[in-house]
Amino acid sequence: PDPNTREYLLVALSHLSTSYPGFLDVNTRETPIPEILDLVHSRERTGSLAFNLQACLRAGARVRDRLSEDGWRLLNALPDHAEAPEFPAAARTLQHLERLALDLAAFAGIVTETLNHGHGWRFLESGRRVERAIGGLSLLRSLVSSIYITALPSDAEPGGASSIRHDQLLLETLLYMKDSLRLYRRRYAGAAIESDAALDILLLDEGHPQSVGYQIARLAELSADYPPVGRGRSRAERLMIEAQSTLRLTELERLDSDEDLHATLERLSGLLFQFSDSLESDYLRSTQLPTAVQTA
After folding, report:
1. CA–CA separation, 54 vs 75, rounded Å?
2. Which end of the chain has fewer CB atoms < 10 Å from its terminal CB, N or C?
3. What's the CA gap between 270 and 266, in Å, rounded?
4. Phi and psi at residue 219, in whole multiples of 5°?
5. pLDDT tens-digit profile of 77-119?
6. What's the rounded Cα separation, in Å, for the pair 137 and 132?
């Protein structure tokens, strides 16, 4: 990509990993490889790949009795992909990441096919969908909503030929990252990549497994089957009805500015965080019985 596009992508990486200051520092953007390798290999850095894989392994160990033998073997081997080699290099790290992507997909498939699909599985699936939706929204905020990225240079006037090419490169990269570029080319054969069409696929399309809309539609279905909490719909279900309604009523061509898009993405993120909090408070928070204090 051209230098400006590369800088947008680097800053988006810092936002996605929430490892700050990261690439928000201009000096780090000038020599990005050490920061990228650290985001992959550092176990002590919150938001890094190695840190998250260790957290995943710890969570899996707590439900070891529910995982199949194949699932446990795959999970146990995941942190090895983020181990720093003796002589770390970008090419070697890329090979590890490609293998990790395949193993994560295999692990997700084994979990889906072997776990009992009761209430526990519904909460597990809900967690997956919440994380995917929030990650997708963060990516859209980083790369599509320009007010989310600050202190980046620009060598083109808005609307100029260089600016349009830059926007198309960002959109093409975004579609590729979300495994949606082939779908775009099938749906809009021969057409240049446009923001409204890309957002329709990545944000609104409830039939596309990589879109935010798909995650929210699945959460709406799952929340309707949660155990009842009081009378009427649960708070979690109401939040997902609101989020789904927000998406279905969004008309991309009527969004007048990046600020309008940013506000919509922020609202959806807020609803998802409230949904996560409601699951914890209504279903997942452990309660302890009071213990009698013995006196002599």
Report:
1. 10
2. C
3. 6
4. -65, -35
5. 887 776 766 555 677 788 888 888 999 999 999 988 988 888 8
6. 9
**pLDDT of the residue at 152:** 47
Write the single-letter amino acid at 103. Answer: D
- Tokens in use for 288? 């302890």
pLDDT of residue 203: 94
Identify each DSSP E strand in the chain by its residue range.
none
Contacts of residue 99, Cβ cutoff 8 Å, sequence gap at least 6: 81
Residue 151 has pLDDT above 60, yes or no: no
Total residues found in the chain within this entry: 296
CA 262/CA 143 separation, integer angstroms: 11
Find which of 114-118, 164-168, 183-187, 223-227 is predicted with most confidence, using mean pLDDT: 183-187
3-state secondary structure string across 72-95: HHHHHHHHHHHCCCCCCCHHHHHH
162: its two tokens: 């260089």
